[in-house]
Structures are given as structure tokens and as C-alpha cells.
Amino acid sequence: MARITGRARVLTAAAVLTAAALGVSACSSSGDTDGGSTDGAGQTLKLWHYEGADSAMGKAWAEAINVFEKETGAKVEFEEKSFEQIQKTASQVLDTDAAPDVMEFNKGNATAGFLASTGLISDISDAVAQYGWADKLAPSLQTTAKYTDKGVMGGDTWYGVPNYGEFVGVYYNKDAFAAAGLQIPTTYDEFIKVLDAFVAKGITPLAEAGAEYPLGQLWYQLALAKGSRDWVNDYQLYKNPVDWQGAETSYASETLKDYVAKGYIAKDVSSIKAEDAGVSFINGTAPIFVSGSWWYGRFTEQATGFDWTMQAFPGSTLSLGSSGNLWVVPQNAKNKDLAYKFIDITMRPEIQAIIGNNGGLPVAADPKDITDAKSKDLISTFNGILGQDGLSFYPDWPAPGFYDVIVQQLQGLVTGTQDAATTNANLGTAYDEGTADYR
Amino acid sequence: MSLTARARRTRVIDDEPAIPQRGRGRGAYWLYLLPGFLLLLIIVIVPLVWNVYLTFTSWKGVRAPTFIGAANWIKLVGDEAFWTSFLNSVWMVIAMVIVPTIVGLLIAALLFDVVGRKFVGRVGSFLRATYYLPQILPVAVAGIVIGWIVRPGSDGALNQLLGGIGIAPYDWLGQMPSALLVLMVVLVWVQIGYPVVVFMAALQRVDPELYEAAELDGANWFQRFASITVSIIRPEIFVVTLTCTIAALKVFGPVYVITRGGPAGATLVPSYYAYQEFFTKRDVGYGATIATVLTILVVIVSIVFIRVQNSLERKERAGL
User: Fold this and answer.
1) ipTM (interface pTM)
2) pLDDT value at position A110?
3) B94 CA: distance to closest CA in chain A (Å)
4) N or C terminus of chain A: which is more exposed, having fewer CB within 10 Å?
5) What is the mean pLDDT of residues B55-65?
């Protein structure tokens, strides 16, 4: 081993200092010459999201990461998480130094609202104003991004930014309709006539799943058919107490029971999972499926044996739906400014177009950039709902754990274990108990 | 001499050398026990005390808990779902303790007597291993397989089999009592290997001369089983019964993957109910209350089992 002399040490130290100085100046000059675009050089943005790589959002955000790294010079440390993982453990992690800088999180009172009320995610109102994101989001999309200090959506403070929307409508197998000599219904009466016609032919028309979310969503859609925006605000934003034996919920529960009794829905619906219901539409077994736009991309790829379309639920101006999940910035994030820059990139038309051309519903895309015909149809239906202020959120949002309550109560209803009044009473008890802290 | 008395004679508890008891140097024992006590304190005692404290709070899992007195306990008393979950624990005990222990005992005896004599070597080992296989299978995998078998409609394997003999498709997991019955059958299937393996190992202790003597005395198989086998492996029966009872009271995985407490909460069990309160409702205080009741129950059951076992052993030593 060469012996290091005192002179050599001095020279080495000088060389290191010179190199360091050059390095610093190189960073500075680089930042200066690019107008500050690489001012994130040497920094790392810690990012969590749970979209599949092949999904519309997964593709869009992969491109956003590329753009972000090029423009800021920062590295993105992306950690792929599962929805359940973030949903169930995020609140613990966000309270520590391990919190990411920007994270995808589910919207709603029990989720993003809960984090907002506990101070675990940042008030990003200043960034929203600085980057002008509010101008890109329709008012009904903003509801789920803004919360009160108790975590109730529709407040005044911005805690998240959505990149996309979603809604629940009705998928129709057009070939099955043609074979049965039926037209796609445009009114609720026509919808019922179609269901009767399929039943008469020995076909169970509605793909449904009582063990998971689809049945609860149909129940809420039926309530929305009799409800108004005020009822939605009472139910979701706690403006007034909800009458659980009122017209909306009574109609929903009784009609759902009728649907099973009349054979519109299979008798064994209570143990069927969402995946099985979706597959029964894909393989052509069930000609109608009431569910969300999140199936659209998959149906485009897999339901290729027949022609199909998706429409808003007939005869109702209100539809389940909301903004998509939110980008939130944890309070313990180390690089909040970089996080805002990343969010801003995801709102750019070119990134939004990736969402739109892959079966998603962008919130700020340039219509000219959407080239896929099927996607254009979907976005057009969504814009129709937005145009009539129709997004009415989801039934389980008002209270933590209300999802399980709805699933279990509707299982009781459709299996005949309990009647509609009891079902509504039980739902009401759980709802009142679960929302008490937020009122 | 009766068969039971002969069997008891094979036990040598009284002849075991006693651990020397000396006044000096006892401190060294405590030194060896210290790591264990420390771990017990950190892993069991502190969380237990914290859990009991949480039962008197309203807490969402983040920030500081709010003290609310006995509200969670009062709510528990009138909570129908809580009582349903504990009632279902009785069914879990039947499925995970009573049936597997009885059937496991018979299978072990048959394997030992018949298979052990006729099929030696690898064949015997294979036959024994087949009973233990479900114990190795991850519960998530078992759940998927069971879900496929009892799937509703005519796609399900069970419904297809039944369709072959003209029975209409049935919604096994969507109706009661079939959902609970399916869950119980799965638990029996998963659980059976454990007592079989333990009892098989225990039977190695039995002196073959006892069976030969019993046969010469004219005892049939069941008399030999009841008087020799059961008597000698009674300590193992206690261990199996105790550990399986605790497992049955705490059962979570199979319920989570097969029924999620459905339909309409009919297969809810205390562990899953506590999990729901903890993680989906974020009502940590109430979840802790359910968990505390469950812990108390497990401790009581354990104490009762151990006391009964000790009492029987004392009687046995006394030759009663």
C-alpha cells in the first residue's frame, strides 16, 4: 500500500475541495441556465401510489415521473403499494419520518377526510392557488378534494388534488339486446321492461355481487333515483339528519328486494363477489351490469366477443361517482415543493390525455388529444353527468366501516333474513353512530 | 391387574430424578430467567396493559386517545354483533377442538394399529403425512380452493357434482346455516392433522406388550383403545384440547378469506369483529374491548384446563 505523505494529504484535500466547489457551481449554473427547471437536482421525491402499471392512471403517472425527473433533475423513489396497504396502515406511517412526499389516497370523509382532520396531511390551498388547479376541476370534483376541520368533504380547505374522475353507470351487451329484439333503455320504465323481457326468456339480466360493493352501489343508485341534491348533501355532508325510513332509502331497499324476487338479480347474489359479476358480463352470461367506469378499460380489452356500451343509470339525474383518488402531501413530507411540482405535471394535458386514451376519465384533458373512439364515448357520458351536477359520491363514505355494514345488511335483505324496514333501521343506527364524531 | 392400571405403570413420573434444590446459588436461576421475563414484559405485559387502557378510550389509531370511562364496556353489553360473534365461537370450538380431537384420536389409533403394522416405511409415512397436509397449506390458498368448490350457481364444483344427481345449485356461502357449516367443515379439514400427528407421536410411548397382554386377555380393539391408548396419551389429549381451544377462540384467517363474517354477520367471530373495529371503523377503543374480553376468556379456559389436568395427574400419582 502506498504511503500517504503529508504533502500528498494537502494536495488530496485541495483536490477534493476544488472538486466539491466545482460540483456546487455546476449544480448552480445548471439550475440557472435552465431557468430553475433542475433545481431539484440531488434531491429525491418519495412517491407512493397503488395503480396497476397497465391501468390508465399507472401509465399516465409513469410518464409523469419521467417528465418530472427530466425537468427537475430530482430522482423519484417510487414505492408501489396496494390499496389495502395504504388504506389500513398509512395513518400510522404518516405520523413518522418514513412518510412519503406525495401519496395517492382514497377520497371521502372516512379516508382523506380522516387524515385531514388529524393533521396528517397538508393544507395545500396555497399550492392550489399558485398552480391554478382549481380552474381545471369542475365544482363537483372539488368537493372530495376540500375538507372541513372535522374532515367532512365539501369544506373550504384543499387537502388533495384529483387527476381523474369516475362514475357508476349501466353496461349493456348490445348484441344480447339485439338478439332479444330489445332496445337500450333511455328511461327507468324502459329499463324495467327490458329486465322483464330478459327474465321471460329465462335470462337473469343483472350481473350483481352481494358479497362486495356492487349491490350496495345499486341500492344507493335506487335511492338517488328518488333523491335530490339536498338528500345527497344530508347523507354525505351531514347538512341535516337522514330519515332512514324516508322515501329514498325505503324505495331503495324495497326495490332491491323486488329485483331479487322478480329474478332481475340471481337468488344467490349474497355470496357473489364483484370479480365474478364483472366476469359474468365479460363472458356474456349477464347482459346488464350496473357498475363503475373503473371496469371500462378491462371490458375494452376483454369483452371483445360482443358490442357493448355504457350509459348513465336511466331516469336519474344523480349518479354515483366522484373525483378519482387524490394526490395528498403528508404533513411530514420532506420535499413539499417538489411534491407540488409533480402534482402539477400530472395535470398537464399530455399526461391527462394518457389517462383519457387508456380508459380513464381525465379531469383536465384537451378533448382534441383523446383519439380513442371508445374513450370518447365514456368521457362524453361522464361530462353529461358533470354538466347536470350529478356526481353523488358513494354510499359507504359517510362513516368509517360503513362499507361492511352495507354489505352485511343488504345480504340480510336479499337472503330474506330481514325486511326492508329492519334493514334501513340497522343501516341508520350504524350511520348515526359512525357519523356522530363528524357532525 | 386391570388394563388401565397396567398402562399407568408404564409412566415413570415418580421415578424421575428431582432437580437439586439448594439454598445457595438460587440467584443464578433468576439470572437465566431474566431474558425471558424481559421479553414477556415487552411483548406481552406492556401491550396487554396498553390494550386494557385503550378499552377506556376513544381512539382512531393516531394522535392521543381520549378517556371515555366505561362507555366501550357498556356498549359491549348491548351489542348484538358481539354476542353473535361469541356464540359463533362455540361452533368454532366444535369444529376445531371436539371433532378433530375425537376423530384424530381414532385415526391415530387406526394408523398406529393397522397402517403401522401393515404399511411400514415410506407408505406409512406418506399416509400419515396426508392427514397433516392441510395444516401446511396457507389459509389464503385453502380459502381460494374452498371458494371455488362452493361457488354459487352452476359453475361451482360442489354444485356441479350435485347437479349430476339432479340437485339444484345452492348458495352455500350466501345462506345460513350452510355458510357456517361450510366454514366448520373447512376448519375440521384444516385442523385434523394436528391431533393426528401429536397422538401418533404419543402412541410411540405405549409398550406393545400391553396390547399383546390385552389381546391375550381377550380384549377387543375398542377395549384396548379405550383402556390403554386413551389412558396413556391423556397428557397429549389435554395439550391438543387446550391449544386447539385457544386457536378456536382466536380463529381469524379462515373467516377472513372464506366468509368475511357474512352472510349478514352470521359467521362473525370475535377476532374478525375486533379487526373490523380496529382497521375499518378505526374505533380502536372498542376493538380493544372485544380483544380484552377474548383474552380474558382464553386465560380462563387455559387456567381451567391446566387445573383439571394437574388434578387428574395428582390423582394418578396417588393411584386413585
Assistant:
1) 0.70
2) 77
3) 24
4) N
5) 89
The pLDDT tens digits of the residues spanning A239-259 come to 999 999 999 999 999 999 999
Nearest residue to B174 (alpha-carbon basis) of B154, B152, B149: B152
* Interface contact flag, A114 B169, Cβ < 8 Å: no
Please tell me the pTM assigned to this model. 0.78
DSSP states along A94-108: HTSTT--SEEEE--S
Using the beta-carbon criterion (under 8 Å), do A211 and B265 form an inter-chain contact? no
- What stretches of B111-259 show up as alpha helix (H) in DSSP? 116-118, 122-136, 139-149, 157-164, 178-191, 193-203, 208-216, 221-224, 230-232, 234-249, 253-258
Rounded Cα distance between B115 and A6, Å, is: 83
- What angle separates helix B157-164 from helix B139-149, to the nearest 10 degrees? 30
In whole angstroms, what is the distance from residue A255 CA to residue A261 CA?
A: 10
Looking at residues B170-188, what average pLDDT do you find?
92
Q: Are A224 and A318 in contact (CB under 8 A)?
A: yes
- Chain A / chain B CB contacts < 8 angstroms: 91
Q: Return the pLDDT at A45.
A: 96
Which contiguous run of DSSP H or E holds residue B90? helix B80-93
> Of chain A residues 119-178, which have a CB less than 8 A from chain B?
119-120
Which residues of chain A are within 8 Å of residue B62 when distances are taken between CB atoms? 91-92, 94-95, 118, 120
